[in-house]
Amino acid sequence: MRKSGPRTPAIMEAQPTVPGPPPGYGQHWYHNPSQQPVDVQPPDGYPPPGLLQPAPEAAPAAPKRKRGRPAGTQQKKSEGAGTKRAKTGKSKGKQEKITDSFKTVKRKIDRFNGTSEAELLTKTLPDILTYGLDIVIIGINPGLMAAYKGHHYPGPGNHFWKCLFLSGLIDVPLNHMDDGSLPEKYGIGFTNMVERTTPGSKDLKSKEIREGGKILLQKLQKYKPRIAVFNGKCIYEIFSKEVFGVKVKKMEFGQQPHQIPDGETVVYVMPSSSARCAQFPRAQDKVHYYIKLKELRNHLKGIKSAPEVSEVEYSFDLHKAQADAKKMAIKEEKHDPGYDAAYGGPVENSADTNGQCNFATAEPAATSNSEFNADSTFCQVPDGQWMTQSFTDQIPSINN
Fold this sequence. Notes:
Layout: H1 25-30, H2 81-91, H3 93-101, H4 117-121, E1 135-139, H5 144-149, H6 160-166, H7 182-186, E2 188-192, H8 206-223, E3 227-231, H9 233-244, E4 254-259, E5 266-270, H10 287-301, H11 318-332, H12 337-342, H13 350-353, H14 391-394
Parallel strand pairs: 1-2, 1-3, 3-5
Antiparallel strand pairs: 4-5
């Protein structure tokens, strides 16, 4: 076993000692029945026995806390997050003020220069109708902007005036301020099915639209235009059911099969000129129906317009094309004197041909070849006979 060496004594620092109480100090103090102080004084730095307090009892150890949210604060599934936030907001008044300050306030735009919507709803848009019109444009009812401006289709996003010019129905660009001049210049008038002004067509009642259809029929029978144009298919569907008694199932834009009773007015339906039309969102998508309207007007007035573009049906036949190519090749082919000589027909300038196939060459050196001179049998064809030997056999071999 390994023996350990002598241990060195530990060096202890000197600690100051406090002198204890004299003998019998505590015993005399606690057993004195009169509880009177005695002459014995405690040493310096030592409190009297009465001031000594017993050591507090050790507190029981706290149970070990589990991980996660405490059971009392867990939120039930039935209570949403909004309920908890609402309770928190009630308990703290400042939270409500912060929430209210973050609310976005929609900015109001003065579209009508101080005129309220209530005032515009009381206004109406007058019709522009007269006798002998070619076209009458029929809308559903005036909007707020039309009632404010007092003109038809004044909206900046409406495609009516743009399509009218692009189709050629008018020869110069116009806008809503010129609607009163259209009957005299171009024979175009304006009216609506319902006279009441609303923010949108959805604000109309079905009873108003049905009654408006009857009033519209009376206007068309009075002025008798050539074409009654419905600006939107929804208007015509209601009008057709009310006037003609026909519920349109699959309606197509353009001329309709029915005419206005007691007259010769033709019914024409085109897409709505509003920019909200989802089927035709752009102006160039609607111009086609304005062009067809112009063609229908010219047809009813007996105006024949020269067709700018003619449609041609083209079909390709390969065999016919090959036959035509052969004919063209034969026509363009130059006359070969040896061709008639081979068939035994009359030969012109026989002294030049002499029954031989003469090939013109630009190089004079080629004629000096002994194998291609006049005495050679190459390409010699008897008169009145065709070559029985193939052309490849007639080619002489050239040996250097």
